[in-house]
Write a structure and sequence with these properties.
Length: 307
Protein backbone atom coordinates (compact mmCIF):
# COMPACT_ATOMS: atom_id res chain seq x y z
CA UNK A 1 0.00 0.00 0.00
CA UNK A 2 1.13 3.58 -0.54
CA UNK A 3 0.30 7.00 0.82
CA UNK A 4 -0.32 10.29 -0.96
CA UNK A 5 3.40 10.75 -1.63
CA UNK A 6 3.56 7.52 -3.65
CA UNK A 7 5.68 5.74 -1.07
CA UNK A 8 4.77 2.60 0.85
CA UNK A 9 3.76 2.65 4.50
CA UNK A 10 7.07 1.01 5.39
CA UNK A 11 8.96 3.73 3.53
CA UNK A 12 6.80 6.36 5.24
CA UNK A 13 7.71 4.81 8.61
CA UNK A 14 11.44 5.21 7.87
CA UNK A 15 10.91 8.77 6.69
CA UNK A 16 9.34 9.54 10.09
CA UNK A 17 12.16 7.82 11.99
CA UNK A 18 14.85 9.72 10.10
CA UNK A 19 12.92 12.97 10.35
CA UNK A 20 12.78 12.86 14.14
CA UNK A 21 16.42 11.79 14.36
CA UNK A 22 17.33 14.86 12.30
CA UNK A 23 15.16 17.07 14.49
CA UNK A 24 16.85 15.73 17.59
CA UNK A 25 20.30 16.28 16.13
CA UNK A 26 19.40 19.89 15.22
CA UNK A 27 18.65 20.63 18.89
CA UNK A 28 22.26 19.94 19.91
CA UNK A 29 24.48 23.01 20.50
CA UNK A 30 26.36 24.29 17.44
CA UNK A 31 29.74 23.35 18.93
CA UNK A 32 28.56 19.77 19.44
CA UNK A 33 27.07 19.46 15.96
CA UNK A 34 29.98 20.93 14.01
CA UNK A 35 32.97 19.98 16.15
CA UNK A 36 32.19 17.10 18.51
CA UNK A 37 30.24 15.28 15.77
CA UNK A 38 31.24 17.04 12.56
CA UNK A 39 35.01 17.01 12.92
CA UNK A 40 35.32 13.23 13.44
CA UNK A 41 33.03 12.70 10.44
CA UNK A 42 35.34 14.92 8.39
CA UNK A 43 38.38 12.89 9.50
CA UNK A 44 36.58 9.65 8.61
CA UNK A 45 35.50 10.90 5.18
CA UNK A 46 38.84 12.42 4.25
CA UNK A 47 41.44 10.07 5.72
CA UNK A 48 39.65 6.72 6.03
CA UNK A 49 36.97 6.60 3.33
CA UNK A 50 39.00 9.08 1.23
CA UNK A 51 35.72 10.26 -0.28
CA UNK A 52 36.34 11.12 -3.95
CA UNK A 53 39.86 12.30 -3.18
CA UNK A 54 41.12 11.34 -6.67
CA UNK A 55 38.27 13.20 -8.37
CA UNK A 56 38.82 16.32 -6.27
CA UNK A 57 42.58 16.38 -6.82
CA UNK A 58 42.17 15.77 -10.57
CA UNK A 59 39.70 18.66 -10.84
CA UNK A 60 41.87 20.97 -8.74
CA UNK A 61 45.03 20.28 -10.76
CA UNK A 62 43.21 21.17 -13.98
CA UNK A 63 41.61 24.29 -12.50
CA UNK A 64 44.73 25.56 -10.69
CA UNK A 65 47.80 24.44 -12.65
CA UNK A 66 49.82 27.21 -10.98
CA UNK A 67 49.29 25.85 -7.45
CA UNK A 68 51.63 23.42 -5.72
CA UNK A 69 50.54 19.95 -4.59
CA UNK A 70 50.73 21.18 -0.99
CA UNK A 71 48.28 23.98 -1.74
CA UNK A 72 45.95 21.63 -3.62
CA UNK A 73 45.96 19.09 -0.80
CA UNK A 74 44.94 21.85 1.63
CA UNK A 75 42.07 22.85 -0.66
CA UNK A 76 41.10 19.17 -0.89
CA UNK A 77 40.89 19.01 2.91
CA UNK A 78 38.81 22.20 2.92
CA UNK A 79 36.43 20.66 0.36
CA UNK A 80 35.78 17.64 2.57
CA UNK A 81 35.37 19.85 5.64
CA UNK A 82 32.87 22.05 3.80
CA UNK A 83 30.95 19.02 2.54
CA UNK A 84 30.69 17.71 6.11
CA UNK A 85 29.50 21.14 7.25
CA UNK A 86 26.81 21.33 4.58
CA UNK A 87 25.51 17.85 5.45
CA UNK A 88 25.10 19.05 9.04
CA UNK A 89 23.48 22.29 7.87
CA UNK A 90 20.96 20.32 5.82
CA UNK A 91 20.09 18.05 8.75
CA UNK A 92 19.77 21.14 10.97
CA UNK A 93 16.94 22.47 8.83
CA UNK A 94 14.70 19.67 10.11
CA UNK A 95 14.70 21.23 13.58
CA UNK A 96 14.83 24.92 12.74
CA UNK A 97 11.95 27.32 12.36
CA UNK A 98 12.11 30.84 10.98
CA UNK A 99 14.11 32.31 13.87
CA UNK A 100 16.60 29.46 13.91
CA UNK A 101 17.26 29.67 10.18
CA UNK A 102 17.70 33.45 10.33
CA UNK A 103 20.37 32.97 13.00
CA UNK A 104 22.27 30.69 10.61
CA UNK A 105 22.42 33.07 7.64
CA UNK A 106 21.98 36.79 7.10
CA UNK A 107 21.01 37.70 3.53
CA UNK A 108 22.07 41.31 3.06
CA UNK A 109 20.15 43.72 0.84
CA UNK A 110 16.73 42.05 0.69
CA UNK A 111 14.97 45.43 0.86
CA UNK A 112 16.93 46.58 -2.20
CA UNK A 113 15.89 43.45 -4.08
CA UNK A 114 12.24 44.11 -3.25
CA UNK A 115 12.57 47.68 -4.53
CA UNK A 116 14.29 46.57 -7.73
CA UNK A 117 11.75 43.87 -8.53
CA UNK A 118 8.61 45.82 -7.51
CA UNK A 119 6.53 42.69 -7.07
CA UNK A 120 7.72 40.98 -10.26
CA UNK A 121 8.73 37.36 -10.28
CA UNK A 122 12.48 36.77 -10.40
CA UNK A 123 15.13 34.11 -10.97
CA UNK A 124 17.45 33.21 -8.08
CA UNK A 125 20.67 31.43 -9.04
CA UNK A 126 22.92 29.62 -6.63
CA UNK A 127 25.53 26.85 -6.86
CA UNK A 128 27.05 24.05 -4.82
CA UNK A 129 29.12 26.69 -3.05
CA UNK A 130 29.03 27.18 0.69
CA UNK A 131 25.56 26.89 2.27
CA UNK A 132 23.56 26.24 -0.90
CA UNK A 133 20.61 24.78 1.06
CA UNK A 134 20.12 28.03 2.97
CA UNK A 135 19.17 30.24 0.05
CA UNK A 136 15.48 29.53 0.60
CA UNK A 137 15.59 31.68 3.75
CA UNK A 138 15.12 34.54 1.29
CA UNK A 139 11.40 33.79 1.59
CA UNK A 140 11.37 35.17 5.15
CA UNK A 141 12.46 38.60 3.92
CA UNK A 142 10.11 38.53 0.92
CA UNK A 143 6.90 36.99 2.31
CA UNK A 144 4.78 38.11 -0.64
CA UNK A 145 6.77 35.71 -2.85
CA UNK A 146 6.74 31.94 -3.14
CA UNK A 147 10.08 30.27 -3.81
CA UNK A 148 10.08 27.54 -6.43
CA UNK A 149 12.93 25.40 -5.13
CA UNK A 150 13.77 23.39 -8.25
CA UNK A 151 15.36 20.05 -7.45
CA UNK A 152 16.37 16.69 -8.91
CA UNK A 153 14.27 13.86 -7.40
CA UNK A 154 16.45 11.19 -5.78
CA UNK A 155 16.20 7.52 -6.72
CA UNK A 156 15.88 6.41 -3.09
CA UNK A 157 12.27 7.21 -2.21
CA UNK A 158 12.87 7.38 1.55
CA UNK A 159 15.77 9.83 1.20
CA UNK A 160 13.85 11.81 -1.45
CA UNK A 161 10.82 12.27 0.82
CA UNK A 162 13.06 13.13 3.77
CA UNK A 163 14.97 15.75 1.79
CA UNK A 164 11.78 17.34 0.49
CA UNK A 165 10.47 17.61 4.05
CA UNK A 166 13.74 19.08 5.33
CA UNK A 167 13.91 21.64 2.53
CA UNK A 168 10.26 22.68 2.68
CA UNK A 169 9.26 25.54 4.96
CA UNK A 170 6.94 28.57 4.82
CA UNK A 171 6.96 30.19 1.39
CA UNK A 172 8.81 27.34 -0.37
CA UNK A 173 7.41 24.91 -2.95
CA UNK A 174 9.56 21.92 -3.94
CA UNK A 175 9.32 21.58 -7.75
CA UNK A 176 10.97 18.73 -9.71
CA UNK A 177 13.19 20.10 -12.48
CA UNK A 178 11.12 18.58 -15.28
CA UNK A 179 8.04 20.45 -13.99
CA UNK A 180 9.69 23.88 -13.69
CA UNK A 181 8.03 25.60 -16.64
CA UNK A 182 4.65 23.99 -16.04
CA UNK A 183 4.62 25.11 -12.40
CA UNK A 184 5.80 28.63 -13.27
CA UNK A 185 3.22 29.13 -16.02
CA UNK A 186 0.43 27.83 -13.78
CA UNK A 187 1.31 30.03 -10.80
CA UNK A 188 3.22 33.21 -11.71
CA UNK A 189 0.03 35.21 -12.30
CA UNK A 190 -1.39 34.18 -8.91
CA UNK A 191 1.52 35.57 -6.88
CA UNK A 192 5.12 36.63 -7.59
CA UNK A 193 7.50 33.67 -7.73
CA UNK A 194 11.20 33.27 -7.05
CA UNK A 195 12.52 30.58 -9.39
CA UNK A 196 15.39 29.09 -7.37
CA UNK A 197 17.95 27.13 -9.39
CA UNK A 198 21.23 25.46 -8.43
CA UNK A 199 22.71 26.18 -11.84
CA UNK A 200 26.18 24.60 -11.71
CA UNK A 201 24.97 21.04 -12.29
CA UNK A 202 26.10 19.05 -15.32
CA UNK A 203 23.45 19.26 -18.09
CA UNK A 204 22.70 16.57 -20.62
CA UNK A 205 24.55 17.30 -23.84
CA UNK A 206 22.43 18.43 -26.77
CA UNK A 207 22.81 20.10 -30.13
CA UNK A 208 23.59 23.79 -29.68
CA UNK A 209 24.58 23.32 -26.04
CA UNK A 210 26.43 26.48 -24.88
CA UNK A 211 29.98 25.89 -23.59
CA UNK A 212 32.02 28.33 -21.54
CA UNK A 213 35.57 28.61 -20.24
CA UNK A 214 35.12 28.03 -16.51
CA UNK A 215 37.87 27.31 -14.01
CA UNK A 216 40.41 26.87 -16.82
CA UNK A 217 38.30 24.29 -18.69
CA UNK A 218 35.54 24.12 -21.27
CA UNK A 219 32.32 23.55 -19.34
CA UNK A 220 28.67 23.03 -20.26
CA UNK A 221 26.01 24.88 -18.24
CA UNK A 222 22.25 24.84 -18.04
CA UNK A 223 20.77 27.83 -19.86
CA UNK A 224 17.20 27.36 -18.60
CA UNK A 225 17.45 30.32 -16.22
CA UNK A 226 18.33 32.63 -19.09
CA UNK A 227 15.54 31.19 -21.25
CA UNK A 228 12.83 31.81 -18.66
CA UNK A 229 14.23 35.25 -17.72
CA UNK A 230 14.22 36.50 -21.30
CA UNK A 231 10.82 35.02 -22.18
CA UNK A 232 9.06 36.50 -19.16
CA UNK A 233 11.30 39.56 -18.58
CA UNK A 234 12.39 38.44 -15.11
CA UNK A 235 15.26 39.92 -13.11
CA UNK A 236 18.05 37.44 -12.35
CA UNK A 237 20.01 37.44 -9.09
CA UNK A 238 23.07 35.51 -7.97
CA UNK A 239 23.27 34.28 -4.38
CA UNK A 240 26.82 34.91 -3.12
CA UNK A 241 27.46 33.49 0.39
CA UNK A 242 30.37 33.98 2.77
CA UNK A 243 31.32 31.71 5.67
CA UNK A 244 31.64 33.45 9.03
CA UNK A 245 32.24 30.30 11.08
CA UNK A 246 30.97 26.72 11.11
CA UNK A 247 27.24 26.84 10.44
CA UNK A 248 27.04 30.66 10.34
CA UNK A 249 27.00 32.65 7.07
CA UNK A 250 26.06 35.86 5.37
CA UNK A 251 25.14 36.35 1.74
CA UNK A 252 24.59 39.03 -0.88
CA UNK A 253 22.12 39.07 -3.77
CA UNK A 254 23.90 40.32 -6.90
CA UNK A 255 21.75 41.56 -9.79
CA UNK A 256 22.83 39.90 -13.06
CA UNK A 257 19.96 41.04 -15.28
CA UNK A 258 17.19 43.54 -14.65
CA UNK A 259 14.58 41.95 -16.91
CA UNK A 260 14.63 44.92 -19.31
CA UNK A 261 18.17 45.22 -20.69
CA UNK A 262 18.72 44.04 -24.28
CA UNK A 263 21.35 41.31 -24.08
CA UNK A 264 22.95 38.91 -26.56
CA UNK A 265 22.49 35.16 -26.32
CA UNK A 266 24.25 33.50 -23.35
CA UNK A 267 25.18 36.82 -21.72
CA UNK A 268 23.06 36.22 -18.61
CA UNK A 269 24.41 32.70 -18.21
CA UNK A 270 27.98 33.96 -18.58
CA UNK A 271 27.43 36.67 -15.97
CA UNK A 272 26.37 33.95 -13.55
CA UNK A 273 29.40 31.84 -14.44
CA UNK A 274 31.83 34.72 -13.90
CA UNK A 275 30.25 35.62 -10.54
CA UNK A 276 30.50 32.00 -9.40
CA UNK A 277 34.06 31.70 -10.72
CA UNK A 278 35.07 34.79 -8.76
CA UNK A 279 33.68 33.27 -5.55
CA UNK A 280 35.43 29.95 -6.18
CA UNK A 281 38.76 31.64 -6.91
CA UNK A 282 38.47 33.53 -3.62
CA UNK A 283 37.54 30.47 -1.53
CA UNK A 284 37.98 27.26 -3.57
CA UNK A 285 37.37 24.96 -0.61
CA UNK A 286 33.71 26.05 -0.45
CA UNK A 287 32.79 24.57 -3.85
CA UNK A 288 31.82 20.94 -4.37
CA UNK A 289 34.76 19.64 -6.40
CA UNK A 290 33.66 16.06 -5.70
CA UNK A 291 31.45 15.76 -8.78
CA UNK A 292 32.86 14.82 -12.19
CA UNK A 293 32.05 18.21 -13.65
CA UNK A 294 34.32 17.89 -16.69
CA UNK A 295 33.80 14.30 -17.82
CA UNK A 296 32.05 15.47 -21.01
CA UNK A 297 34.05 16.94 -23.85
CA UNK A 298 32.85 19.86 -25.98
CA UNK A 299 32.35 19.53 -29.75
CA UNK A 300 35.48 19.77 -31.87
CA UNK A 301 34.57 23.22 -33.16
CA UNK A 302 34.71 24.47 -29.56
CA UNK A 303 38.13 22.91 -28.99
CA UNK A 304 39.36 24.40 -32.27
CA UNK A 305 38.88 27.87 -30.76
CA UNK A 306 41.95 27.25 -28.61
CA UNK A 307 44.21 26.55 -31.60
Amino acid sequence: MSNGSNITRWQAFWVEVLWYLCRGFALLPRVVRHYVVGYPIYLLMHYVIRYRRKVVMHNLRNAFPEKSDKELRQICRDVTRNLTEQIINTIDKAGLGREGLLKRINIIGIDEVREQTSGRSLVFLTAHYGPWEMGTTLSFGMPEYEIMAVYHPLKNRVVDELMKRIRRHDGVAMVPMQQTMRYFISNYQKQPLIVGLIADQNPKTRAGQPWFRFMNQWTAFFDGAETIALKYHLPVYYFSPRRIKAGIYEAHMTLLYDGVEEVAENVITERYIRALEQDIMAHPGLWMWTHKRWKKKPPQEILDQEI
